[in-house]
Amino acid sequence: MDERAARDVVLARAIETTDQEHQLLRADEIRQAGLSARNMGHLQGGGDAADAFLSRRAALLLDALERRMPALAAARRPYRITVLASWALPPAGLVAGALTERIANPHRMDLLSLPLLGVLAWNLLMYLVLLAFQAIPALRRRRTMLLDHVWKPAGGPRRRRAPAALASAIARFSGDWHRLAAPLNLARARRTLHLAAALFGAGIAASLYVRGLIVEYRVGWESTFLGAEHVHAILQVLFAPATWLFQLPGFSLADVAALRFDANGGQPGGARWVHSYAALLAVVVIIPRLLLAGGAAWTAARLRREFPLDVGQPYYRKLLGALSPVPLRLRIIPYSFSVDEERNQGLQAVARAMLGDTAQATVGAGWGYGTDPEERPPQDLAGEPATVTAALVNLSATPERENHGAFLDALARALPGKLVLMVDQSSYASRLAGQADATRRLEERKRLWQDFGRLHQVPVTVVDLLDPPADVR
Prior knowledge:
alpha/beta
């Protein structure tokens, strides 16, 4: 799924999950869009059926809504300042480099030019920073958050004219999209900044050559504290990469000593040093930055073609259930939990809410409190067909690391990425009914289990099996 299709899918999801009262999209519109997208897939065939179905369905829904509410176009096809910046910054870097007067002063080339040395030092510092970002994950996350905040689509004024229901949906979409598109936005930012830096260096080199066509450089150096031997050592280290790569002629201590600025203003014959500085800019700035820009451009193009959208989330699983030739199955593994008939019916409703109207829930053999995972290894579950496996616990219980935690860890190892923790609140809500602090205590217990699920890296879904929801997220 490419970026444009993924944007529509995420926007449609935000609208559907926010518009609970169907102020924007009618229930029959949503149902008809799903049927039409599925039928179009049967006719066209080929490609990834799941991605194609989601993108076609989203396009049908958004096209219909945009005809009624043109303000939706600002979210579907935003005017991004960053697009203009990606085109404007590289040429601006070239012009800024070409206009750097301090590096190529008329009739004089200073071998110890601070602006030029500053450009080289800045780029070397940036390479060290990039290496640090790669080596330290915490820095990499902070960089992503910062650039994602800066690299935002514009369009706020147009969005404010949208109806309240649409504005709420777009606000949710904006947060979801910025989080999902952070890797793509980072790649685009890196591509633009590296290319601008490369062209800045190229502009400096071009300025040296162009000015050298119409003036004669007087080459030299001057310093209060450095002698000829110090300057010779500095220049040898500075020009070593360019001299080696481009096989440029070297220079002796006597050559450097003869170039010290005096009353006559230095020595003529600056072509040699123009070539040396241009080669140095190519080695330190232009070539590395172009390589980094090329790598970032390749990453951005790949992410744009194959946008990383997780279709394993409950919303997408429910929609994709319509494509399955057999009913999807929610496997329930209770822990210290007895599932009666009424709650079994509630589990069937939860399965349909999670996986679509044809989904079924099957309750497996439960685990007793304190069961040792080593005495009852769950590896055999991996061979049983199931779309999603839910470990079912009671909200009345207090999560314990040595019992509930061992149970979750054992299932997570046997079913990596296919396990959710389902917490039933029906018994606990019934026990608290009528108490003054019932709502507070219920929320506190929910947060306790949600924190427990995050600790064991298992998604948590809180349900009421005596009053099952129409949708599960």
